[in-house]
Hints:
Residues 396-440 are annotated as: Disordered. The chain crosses the membrane at residues 20-41, 47-66. Keywords: Membrane, Transmembrane, Transmembrane helix. The protein has 14 helices and 16 strands. By secondary structure, the protein is of the alpha+beta class. The longest helix has 24 residues, at 393-416. It starts with 25 loop residues before the first helix and ends in a 14-residue tail after the last helix. Mean pLDDT is 81; it is low at 1-5 and 505-509.
Amino acid sequence: MTDTTAVAKYSGWQSEKSGWIGDVSGPGVALIGAATAAAVLPLYLHSWPAAAVCLPLTGLLLALAFGRIQGLTAAEWITLAVRHQISVARREHLFLSGVFAPRTAAGDQPLDLPGTLARLRILSAPDGLGGTLAVVHHPVDRTYTAVARITYPELALVDEDRKEARVAGWRDVLRSLCTEEGAITRIAVHQRCLPDDGGALREWAARHIAQDAPPSAVETLDGLMSGAGPVSTKRETYLALTLSASRARLAVRGAGGGQRGACAVLVRELGALRGALAAAALTVEEWLGPRELAAVIRTAYDPHIQPALSAHDALAKAPDWQGEAKGVDPALAGPAAAEKHWNSYRHDGGHSIAYQVRGLPHEAVLATVLQPLMRPRTTARRTLTLLYEPIGPRRARNELSRERTKRRSARILRARTGRDESEDQVREDRTARSQDQARAAGQGVVRLTALLALTVTDPEVLDTAAAELQADASDAGLRVRRVWGGMDEGFAVACLPLGRGLPDRRRPL
């Protein structure tokens, strides 16, 4: 929603409630039940020794259920720790790639990737324009994802009317996907800030130097290029669209069925979105093919390969090039080795930390609120991923109605117990009501989450880079938390534009 001020500001989001009863999860309810039984047992037994044992146990169980550290209960922390230790005991935290990832009988190319990404396959499909499109297929989830490299004009230096029009264009893209049983079930925006060797800058300078330029000026320019290259950075932005074959089963069947039919439906959906993306001032540079997508994955796992791959791709653009095509063979996209730690993730020559955004700003913010997150830093490369899941009108009505009912019940309970409402609770109730009103007026509803990650090649600067990222997130008004115990999953979502999605309900990662 937009404020009626000269400078457009935006707000209206709120955290998704996942508690089984109120804010208490299912395990929390079980702990409360056990605590109640422990408290009642001494009364039933009429035993003081039993009370001496059961009452401290009751206090411990209630502390596990209600005590929170960094937004998680003690029981949830214990669950994460136990899950991590089990994976370590089973050596599931380690990954060593095979020599090759052989093709299957169906002809699709497996990606030799660790963890939850092991099931992914890259399919090749015609893009309808004479080219080849890479489609990431998850055979269990039955999803098909296409990835585009996009560019967009900066918002910081444009006037407010144009800025608001671009934000409204993106809003219309999301709203167009909020349909009943829509085929596109997820849209992900992925941006990463990479160190640049300065090759593009030097190439541009070489093309624009005048033939009669003074030698001293050319020498000075060469010195500037040599100094600017190692400290310059570049941004890459990707848009991933995911189709659910289950929800689009009739369309897939009509297009021939199977993987071929699903890819055809996905290409058709991409074509239908071209106009909406253009209206949002998003320019699709290219829909990535198998080798281009594999290169994006490979450079995320191995930062050291970026300069060599950029140089190779520049040579491969020459019309008389006889060597290997640009990009990377999909069989070599994954890491040679990877290891998950409790608080970090090591992969080839990189060390990464993933963060989940646990809280968005409470107040209305400008459209440029996320800019501090992608500030150029010499210590680390950064990535930001925004995941949107469009919700159909019927489900949105039920979800928002359930949300309002939960909050109304909690308000009645607080009134009966004599507790005052906090300002946060009043604001959340008002936001839930305004969301339902906007939905009734025809606006779309989406689930949104954001993940951040940083990658360094020197583990000695990892803590410094983490402190810088947390400070920049604070400047943007975001509350972030490390993906403790699940760094490999956090890396897969935050650093790889593969359209991996949200859980059905919010859960600690």
